[in-house]
Task: structure prediction
Amino acid sequence: MTLIPEIDENATRTKAREILKDFRTLSRIGGVYLSDIKSPVIDGMPKTRSVNNSVDGKLAKVVTARISVELIEHALMALTTTSFWTLFYSYCNKEVLTYDQIAYRMQGYSRESIKKLKNRALLEFAEAYQGENLLVFKNPEKAPN
Result:
């Protein structure tokens, strides 16, 4: 009996990618200032008030984005240095980088080795991420709770 059941690596990497691919958008949303102050317009017509509060909705969206970013960052900090930089350049850098650009920045790695490092890093990320369980097991009945 093994302590950890066999992981379906492809499905696990897919789930990790789904979380990481939104990082840039979430970080922009989380850093947005909630200042939608507009000059008043006087046109003489009566106004009806909206039933929902747009500021509350925007605040909830920002808070949710910030929490998601913190969960991703926390998981990234638990990775090995090489895995951290591989995922950082792949998903967290402001600009979207190609494998060649990532290899150039990481010095000493080829385009092909970056692909392999990214596959390993995604599995590490899935193990470290606390927002939800990203690990997919080959035998679900043997999966830990």
About this structure: Confidence is low (pLDDT under 50) at residues 32-41.
